[in-house]
Automatic annotation (TrEMBL):
<dbReference type="GO" id="GO:0000976">
    <property type="term" value="F:transcription cis-regulatory region binding"/>
</dbReference>
<keyword id="KW-0678">Repressor</keyword>
<dbReference type="InterPro" id="IPR009057">
    <property type="entry name" value="Homeodomain-like_sf"/>
</dbReference>
<dbReference type="GO" id="GO:0045892">
    <property type="term" value="P:negative regulation of DNA-templated transcription"/>
</dbReference>
<keyword id="KW-0805">Transcription regulation</keyword>
<protein>
    <recommendedName>
        <fullName>HTH tetR-type domain-containing protein</fullName>
    </recommendedName>
</protein>
<dbReference type="InterPro" id="IPR001647">
    <property type="entry name" value="HTH_TetR"/>
</dbReference>
<dbReference type="Pfam" id="PF00440">
    <property type="entry name" value="TetR_N"/>
</dbReference>
<dbReference type="InterPro" id="IPR050109">
    <property type="entry name" value="HTH-type_TetR-like_transc_reg"/>
</dbReference>
<keyword id="KW-0238">DNA-binding</keyword>
<keyword id="KW-0804">Transcription</keyword>
<feature type="DNA-binding region" description="H-T-H motif">
    <location>
        <begin position="29"/>
        <end position="48"/>
    </location>
</feature>
<dbReference type="InterPro" id="IPR036271">
    <property type="entry name" value="Tet_transcr_reg_TetR-rel_C_sf"/>
</dbReference>
<dbReference type="GO" id="GO:0046677">
    <property type="term" value="P:response to antibiotic"/>
</dbReference>
<dbReference type="Pfam" id="PF02909">
    <property type="entry name" value="TetR_C_1"/>
</dbReference>
<dbReference type="InterPro" id="IPR003012">
    <property type="entry name" value="Tet_transcr_reg_TetR"/>
</dbReference>
<dbReference type="InterPro" id="IPR004111">
    <property type="entry name" value="Repressor_TetR_C"/>
</dbReference>
């Protein structure tokens, strides 16, 4: 069996995802992927007609595990939190995803449609109307994207061995602000003395997003 015959949508999407993580979304082209996979471009066109379809295939691939376990009998809050944590976990694992999730027409992907349907069902259980449920689902997705994009610490391009120096420079920059005008920012400079607790940050982010939904749901009880 030739490489082209062994090729699957999942294989192509996984390689495209890896390439985007390493070099950015602009690096993804049909020709480049074909070379990476050892096939002709025509072999990829069998699965994806163009780059837009390919990027949607990546979204569909990475969201394949985002679903609610409706058979478990867990309360809607626990299931919704699990979906949110899964989405954040997937995006944390793949640096290219926040930008892709923000820009792609996700409603063209079966995995996103299923995940959205699951989310709407959970929010309906919480007492929200479908329009409100969709607003909340959108809010949670954008909040998850923002949480990952805004992860504290060094920018992605800073090597680990330069992290301490990067934090020192940021601390000095804030400490040099006029304390009479920006006292809180000057005080905030002390937070750069050590690496941020990223796991605590993401747990806090999930709590923050969920608390708004749970508070509004409680008003409908």
């Amino acid at each position: 069996m030739s490489p082209a015959e062994r090729l699957s949508k999942a294989t192509v999407a996984e390689r495209a995802l890896r390439l985007a993580d390493e070099e950015g979304l602009d690096a993804i082209t049909i020709r480049r992927l074909a070379k990476e996979l050892g096939v002709t471009p025509m072999a990829l066109y069998w699965h994806f007609k163009n780059k837009e379809e390919l990027l949607l295939g990546v979204v569909d691939h990475v969201l394949s595990d985002v679903r609610a376990d409706r058979s478990a009998g867990d309360p809607w809050q626990k299931q919704l939190r699990a979906i949110l944590e899964t989405v954040i976990g997937v995006m944390r694992a793949h640096p290219c995803l926040p930008d892709l999730m923000h820009s792609a027409d996700k409603m063209q992907t079966p995995s996103f449609i299923r995940a959205t349907n699951d989310t709407l069902a959970l929010l309906a259980d919480a007492g929200f109307g479908l329009d409100e449920a969709y607003w909340i689902a959108t809010y949670l997705l954008n909040g998850a994207i923002g949480a990952v994009a805004g992860q504290p610490g060094c920018p992605p391009g800073v090597p680990p061995e330069q992290a301490a120096e990067w934090r020192r420079q940021k601390r000095v920059q804030l400490e040099c602000l006029p304390a009479d005008k920006f006292p809180m920012m000057v005080e905030f400079a002390t937070t750069y003395q050590q690496a941020p607790d990223v796991e605590r940050y993401f747990a806090f982010s999930v709590d923050l997003l969920m608390s708004g939904v749970e508070t509004m749901a409680s008003r409908r009880a």
